[in-house]
Amino acid sequence: MKTSDFRDVFVRVQSDLLIIDDSIMTDRHHASNGNYEDTDPQNQIGGIIPAFSPSGWLRHGMEKAVHERDGTVCHPGEANANFRKDGVYNRDLDAGYHPKGDCLEDEGGDGCVIHDLFGGFGNRPGKVMRRPIRFSPIRSSVDYTRGQAEGHYRRLNRNIVSRNREDNREPLRNTEVDAVANLDGAWHLSFREAKPEFIALLAAGIDYLDAHQTDFMHQLGGARNFGGGIVDCELMNPLYEKSELRRVFDRGKGNTKRMDAKDDEWADECLPELQSALTERVEHVS
Ligand SMILES: [Zn+2]
Ligand SMILES: [Zn+2]
Questions:
Q1: What is the complex's ipTM, to 2 decimals?
Q2: Could you tell me which residues are beta bridge partners of residue 9?
Q3: pLDDT tens, 22-58?
Q4: What sign has the CA pseudo-torsion 10, 15, 20, 24?
Q5: Which ligand has an atom closest to residue 60 CA?
Q6: Which of 34, 175, 193, 231 would you call most buried, defined as having the most Cβ atoms within 10 angstroms of its Cβ?
Q7: CA atoms of 236 and 14, how far apart (whole Å)
């Protein structure tokens, strides 16, 4: 096993409804020929989900996976921010976080594994690149091997109603939110350096998120009280060839024998080796 073979990995993400506020970019102006109807289910609008929200979601899952191994990680907020005065910050420091960047002082310079992966201190880049997810409603045009997804763009209308009883719950205003329905695809992550503990932590973080997919804290994006952002997720076997990766999304076909053999190899040989590197690294810091 060469970890450098795992520089590019894919996470399968499936969600009935994803609401990423205003940040979904669509190609509706091209797709519509000038007569685009938001609400027409026949519209063939695709777009891009920027990586910001998925990245925060992933990071949180990976933080939890470090906590489960009794390690601490960088607090996501700046140590000099106002919330440092806040009780929440101190509570977080008791619950598995250290002030951002503190780990750089006593390690070999890479800091804790979360800092190493996500960077963000000074102009230090993270070592995992989170790519945007391009989606399209037309499955035949989705290239899963390039980190794309099938997804159906929807514009939802939400009435913000008054909470004053005297107002009789009259709508105060109407807002429109961008949503992607029935998302199913592959999120492409690239490691600038493929350390074994990175891949193990990614696998563990994704497992954690999948197991906690209905926890408010671990849903993705907005409208969480209304079932938005519940994500089924799974690290796709990094040993798969492109054609095998594609086959996973083909509902008419199951695994080949070769894919089953690779699943066993991954679970029984690769992952345990990567996991011991993670255990060693987490123990080393705390
Ligand atoms: Zn740290
Ligand atoms: Zn959490």
A1: 0.63
A2: 189
A3: 677 877 665 555 555 655 656 678 899 999 899 999 9
A4: positive
A5: 2
A6: 231
A7: 13
